[in-house]
UniProtKB/TrEMBL annotation:
AMP-dependent synthetase/ligase domain span: 7-362
Domain of life from the UniProt record: Bacteria
Protein name as catalogued: Long-chain acyl-CoA synthetase
Family: Belongs to the ATP-dependent AMP-binding enzyme family.
GO MF terms held by the record: long-chain fatty acid-CoA ligase activity; medium-chain fatty acid-CoA ligase activity
Amino acid sequence: MGTLGFWRLAQADPEWIAAVDPDGTQHRAGDLLARSNRLVHGLRELGLRPGDGICGLVPNGADGLVLYLAALQAGWYYTPINWHLTGPEIAYIVTDSEAKAFFVHPRFAAEGARGAEAIAPERRFLLGEGDGFRAASELTGGQPDTAPADRTAGATMHYTSGTTGKPKGVRRPLSGLDPDDSAELMTFLLGLFGITPGRPNAHLVTSPSYHTAVTQFGGTALHLGHTLVYMDRWDAEEMLALCERHRVTNSHMVPTHFKRLLALPEQVRKKYDLSSLRWMIHAAAPCPVPVKWAMLEWWGDCVYEYYAATEGGGTLATPEDWKAHPGTVGKAWPISELLITDEQGEPVPTGTPGTIYMKMMGVQFEYKGDPAKTAANRLKDHFTVGDIGYLDEDGFLFLCDRKADMIISGGTNIYPAEIENELMVHPKVADVAVFGIPDEEWGEQVKAVVEPAPGIEPGPELAAELLASLEGRLARMKWPKSIDFIAEMPREPNGKLLKRKLRAPYWEGHDRAI
């Protein structure tokens, strides 16, 4: 141990450009180090102790990075809050996480002020000037730039998107390690993909940093000595321009990004030099096989995939793995284990779909304040997020769908993801969601909601054309009974589809909402 970790690297090379904000502002490692040190000194004066938590409602960029770096060297939990939430939802997380300080960026001051009512006035800070908050500069002004004494590793505590009920914080015990040693252990994750430390390397942050994977991959790249290049909101051509400008070597993406990149005109796609790309990693949603093939053809063998959960454990598919097993999300990590079970929790044979359970050696977690939820998702020392999948004879995992999204029609299990993948590849489709709606005879019937590609007219003709495209590719019983159209699909910025929102109207007045 002893060569990696942001704080060590920043002391060794304070001139290294560690982060680039969306507006192009560059931040030297030495400056970020000094800012994170001042913040620790200031918060300690406010009474924060190891094990306490802080929350941040901040956009992508150096401001949030400083909160993260302060917490991770002072033994605190850092919770970045989803900036799409409303005041009461923000207040819930500030309260539930037992935050001892809450930082808000002026951009989110309106909802942030409503959320801040959950915490004492002297513990609310605005990263700027404004009413109802203390200026964060009050906390850090006059504090020394020097490293705080008694440094100890902190952690992030992300809130799961809460597909049922209130979101829950995923909390891990603190390690008690030196912060840089702890950060170096974290780099194991990127090591699985073969990602190398040092310069010149740049990691493009394509999604909001309040998502677990975005923080994990971005933070870990930083601890490897890579430059973090932040996007404010994702745009296909802007992403290509940033990759060329900053010689980006690695990033973390979702399949929706691929679909939108592939929709760019050929001359735009050819305009940018992407020769620096080495590890473009994607996850979070199933990627249709033709979309992935198209990305590999365009970018070459730098497209890696994994499947994992905030709670820990996962799989990895290298470009070579995937080409040999198209559609797989990979094999279990060396320190992780997979188990596929039936409804009774018994293991199922190879090739048979079942509930996916995972475990990661030495990693324990709990849903904060919810032992019942923690226990409900466990099978001995394995846990599940409710996904359905199967293993092939080589141990490669294939996803079918989330258990909650499975449609049971006439007693047959139908997996929406399979239907979505077939519809998604149609050139007239920008985005698609498939789910079950009530059916008097069959229990449920298959409904598709489609966001047409730009310039395409929605209507019965398009619906008929899309259904006809399934001929010979999908069993008739899996075909949507009907297709509705929507101007824009409700997705979280990490690519996660908000199916509940789409599904709810169809189940009104029925006793069984899935």
